[in-house]
Amino acid sequence: MTAAPNQFVKEVVRISFLSVISLIDVMRPLCAIAMALTIASIAHAQTMAPTPIPNKRCEAAEKRIARENRDLKATLETLGREHKARETCSTRSVCARIDDNIATLEKRHYRHEIRLVRSRGEALEVCRGK
């Protein structure tokens, strides 16, 4: 009785071994393709530049610079309009009001320039590692 189970086990092992061998024969081209794709993807990943990690403080500094540039431009445009209006004013009260506006805009222009220089300095420090 022991011969039959041993024979059965041997037959199962032989069939399993043949199945594995035939599976390896079938899988060999697939493994070669998978290896080629893996090597190609590794080579492609090495040639690509690493994407920079976004720095929230740097992004905030750049937004602040953009905002200051936008505000400075708007102030300069308004200042230009006020100078043009000053050339054509006809009454003393209108000219005085325009002069006050020009003085206020020049102060605002100066403040925007100072903030812009300060923001650029901060951005250089924060974004240095970017």
Concise synopsis of the structure shown:
The chain has helices spanning 3-47, 56-88, 92-126. With 130 residues, the protein is an all-alpha fold.
Distance between the termini: 78 Å
- Mean pLDDT score: 77
In which range does the helix fraction lie? over 70%
Number of helices: 3
Strand residues, percent: under 5%
Low-confidence stretches: none
What is the global morphology?
rod-shaped
Element-level helix/strand string: HHH
The largest β sheet comes out as: none
**Category from helices, strands and their pairing:** mainly alpha
| Cα-based radius of gyration, to the nearest Å | 39 Å
How many extended strands?
Answer: 0
Write a concise keyword list for the protein shown above.
130 residues; mainly alpha; 3 helices; rod-shaped
